[in-house]
């Protein structure tokens, strides 16, 4: 489903060129559960941004569902993100003035889904994450674990093919972190491709496929039980 | 995104930051309010002045001695001659024209008016019986000047309300003799105090027959002659006749100036409309300033909500959608501000009317429309730059800011 060929990402820092990704080749099939680990500055976030179409490689090709997406315009990429990719962030990125319900609704508003269908989908997803009675709460009235569950609901409401999670438990305590991972794994078991970037070894090794990045290159790519 | 979704999103954004919203609303409403107030004053002044003049009647022709256009080049000037005087005989001869309903010659001067120990210096007008009707005055007491020949004086006078109050206090002035200059006149009437009248204050007047005024001031020249045509359509014919008659009497010289009430009215109307436009323009400057403020505040908003914009991009918002959402905020604020400004302006003008009941302060419809349109246009225009800045933000950088 995802195919990266010799993808390079070079940043200009002052008058120095920093290679964040160095000729990365990567194949990801639908339904995989992948963790990406590596030291700070190794390029794992850059890889995630490129996979999520938030960033463009300087060189190389990115095929999503067999289609070259690197040459798309900004708005075409935005549409692709809307339809195929979900994001979960370390800091949740919920809009503070909107209720939980309204935050989940946002991607559907942008996609132009009719109001009744939006309400139905929100109702279903709130039930699935066990927060039906928190629909009217604003982010400042919710705990970290609840916030991340709302964020996951928002990321999956458009039924994307791939879910990209950047340190999803980085801002949570052990217990709610565990619940979030459980929720993500449940979604994966229903067929959603899950890619988690994490520092946490315990979380990283739960994935069926574990990718390790060092200095912008994939140094290890293991599949199977760790 | 449909209009309702955009509206709900912007409403949330606008209401979540109260101080910002209130500041922008205040700025916008001051701008719109000042347009409303200033144009109301301009229109009020225009109505006031044109009402004053139309109260005198639109069939009126005023004959002034001297020809202003040619005064500097007249042959007479070379020999040290002033323009020929306008006399009561000129006035009398105008009666020949069939287009004319009535005439009032006017002679003006100032004299000491006294009754017993009390005396005052005041304007004295010499005229004829028809002045009452030409100027649409009413009598409070007694009668106006009797009908008589212009060259016949008579020791009678009519006084204004203030003159009555100051000279007679509570005494009944009718039949009393007062002294104007060194002549004695019997009071035969008091003019009803009228709210307003152009030029002279009716309340301060003393009116005597024109021949008597000429005798008091020892000056045969009339100040002007007021001529009223039979109806409005006859005004041009009446003007021709008056010019012809005066020319015949003045040895073929066009040495009078004729002013019609309509022309005066039209001129004032033009002047005051221009004035209203000018003050509206001044008001529009504050609208422009409000627009700049909106731009500033929106720029700050965009940098405060960077991570929100990053998120919107991540979940698939196009550049156009982000532009619309942020411009929508600016437009919504301008719209509410404009409405508040109109309310504020009307409140101020209505309050002012209580204190100045003579003025009707109502903003013209075009000013309301223009102020609203300018407010919303500036809001959108000045919202465009911040909105486009938001739309162009790089999502990775935007998301990395918490």
Keywords for this entry:
heterodimer; A: 226 residues; alpha/beta; Rossmann fold; six-stranded mixed β-sheet; four-stranded antiparallel β-sheet; 35% helix; B: 402 residues; six-stranded mixed β-barrel; 13 helices; 17% strand
Which secondary structure elements does this structure contain, and how are they paired or packed?
The complex is a heterodimer of chains A (226) and B (402).
Chain A: E1 2-13, E2 16-28, E3 33-37, H1 44-51, E4 59-64, E5 67-68, H2 74-84, E6 85-88, H3 100-111, H4 115-128, H5 144-156, E7 162-166, H6 174-189, E8 193-197, H7 201-204, E9 209-214, E10 217-223
Chain B: H1 3-16, H2 18-55, E1 60-65, H3 75-78, H4 88-94, E2 100-115, E3 118-127, H5 131-134, E4 139-142, E5 156-159, H6 161-168, E6 177-180, E7 183-191, E8 206-209, H7 210-217, E9 224-229, H8 235-249, E10 256-260, H9 261-304, H10 306-314, H11 319-355, H12 365-392, H13 395-400
Parallel strand pairs in B: 3-8, 5-7
Antiparallel strand pairs in B: 1-9, 1-10, 2-3, 2-6, 2-9, 4-7, 5-8, 6-7
Helix pairs in contact in B: 1-11, 2-9, 2-11, 2-12, 9-12, 11-12
* Sheet having the most strands of chain B: 6 strands, mixed, barrel
Distance between the termini of chain A: 24 Å
**Proportion of residues in extended strands of chain B:** 15-25%
Count of β-strands of chain A: 10
Give the neighbour order of strands across the main sheet of chain A: 6-7-8-3-9-10
> Which CATH class of chain A is shown?
Alpha Beta
Give the strand order of the largest sheet of chain B, numbering strands 1, 2, ... along the chain: 2-3-8-5-7-6
Shape of chain B: elongated
- What is the succession of H and E elements of chain A? EEEHEEHEHHHEHEHEE
Helix content of chain B: 55-70%
Number of DSSP helices of chain B?
Answer: 13
The helix-and-strand class of chain B reads alpha+beta
Question: Largest protein interface?
Answer: A-B, 29 and 25 residues
Count the domains of chain A: 1
Percentage of residues in DSSP E strands of chain A: 25-35%
- What is the mean pLDDT of chain B? 85
């Amino acid at each position: 489903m995802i195919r990266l060929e010799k993808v390079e990402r070079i940043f200009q820092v002052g008058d120095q060129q920093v290679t964040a990704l160095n000729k990365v080749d990567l194949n990801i099939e639908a339904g995989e559960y992948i963790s990406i680990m590596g030291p700070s500055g190794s390029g794992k976030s850059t890889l995630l941004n490129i996979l999520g179409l938030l960033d463009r490689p300087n060189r190389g090709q990115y095929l999503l569902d067999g289609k070259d997406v690197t040459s798309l315009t900004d708005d075409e990429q935005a549409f692709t993100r809307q339809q195929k990719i979900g994001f979960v962030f370390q800091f949740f990125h919920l809009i503070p003035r909107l209720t939980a319900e309204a935050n989940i609704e946002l991607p559907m508003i942008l996609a132009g889904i009719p109001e009744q269908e939006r309400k139905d989908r929100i109702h279903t997803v709130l039930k699935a994450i066990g927060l039906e009675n928190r629909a009217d709460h604003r982010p400042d009235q919710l705990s970290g674990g609840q916030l991340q569950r709302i964020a996951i609901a928002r990321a999956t409401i458009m039924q994307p093919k791939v879910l990209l999670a950047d340190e999803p438990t980085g801002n949570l305590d052990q217990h709610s972190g565990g619940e979030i991972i459980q929720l993500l794994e449940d979604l994966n078991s229903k067929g959603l491709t899950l890619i988690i970037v994490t520092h946490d070894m315990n979380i990283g090794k739960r994935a069926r496929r574990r990718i390790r990045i060092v200095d912008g290159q994939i140094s290890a790519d293991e599949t199977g039980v760790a | 995104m449909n209009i309702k979704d955009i509206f709900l999103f912007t409403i949330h954004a606008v209401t979540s930051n109260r101080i910002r919203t209130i500041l922008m609303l205040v700025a916008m409403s001051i701008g719109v309010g000042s347009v409303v107030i200033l144009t109301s004053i301009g229109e009020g002044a225009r109505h006031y002045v044109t009402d004053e003049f139309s109260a005198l009647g639109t069939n009126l022709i005023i004959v002034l001695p001297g020809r202003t256009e040619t005064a500097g080049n007249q042959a007479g000037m070379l020999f040290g001659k002033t323009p020929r005087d306008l006399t009561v005989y000129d006035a009398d001869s105008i009666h020949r024209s069939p287009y004319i309903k009535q005439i009032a010659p006017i002679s003006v001067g100032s004299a000491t008016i006294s009754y017993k120990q009390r005396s005052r210096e005041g304007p004295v007008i010499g005229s004829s019986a028809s002045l009452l009707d030409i100027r649409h005055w009413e009598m409070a007491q007694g009668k106006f000047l009797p009908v008589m020949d212009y060259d016949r004086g008579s020791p009678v006078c009519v006084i204004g309300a203030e003159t009555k109050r100051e000279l007679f206090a509570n005494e009944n002035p009718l039949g009393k003799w007062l002294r104007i200059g060194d002549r004695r006149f019997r009071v035969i009437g008091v003019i009803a105090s009228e709210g307003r009248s152009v030029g002279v204050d009716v309340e301060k007047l003393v009116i005597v027959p024109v021949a008597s005024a000429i005798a008091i001031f020892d000056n045969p020249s009339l100040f002007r002659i007021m001529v009223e045509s039979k109806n409005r359509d006859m005004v041009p014919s009446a003007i021709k006749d008056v010019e012809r008659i005066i020319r015949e009497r003045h040895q073929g010289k066009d040495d009078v100036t004729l002013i019609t009430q309509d022309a005066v009215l039209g001129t004032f109307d033009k002047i005051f409309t221009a004035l209203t436009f000018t003050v509206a323009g001044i008001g529009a400057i504050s609208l422009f300033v409000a627009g700049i403020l909106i731009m500033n505040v929106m720029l700050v908003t965009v940098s405060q909500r960077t991570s929100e914009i990053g998120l919107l991009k991540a979940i698939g918002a196009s550049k156009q959608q982000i532009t619309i959402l942020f411009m929508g905020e600016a437009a919504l604020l301008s719209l509410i501000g404009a409405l508040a400004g109109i309310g504020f302006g009307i409140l101020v003008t209505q309050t002012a009317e209580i204190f100045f009941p003579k003025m009707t302060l109502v903003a013209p419809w075009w000013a309301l429309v223009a102020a609203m349109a300018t407010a919303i246009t500036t809001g959108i225009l000045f919202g465009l730059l911040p909105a486009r800045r938001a739309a162009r933000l790089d999502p990775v950088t935007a998301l990395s800011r918490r």
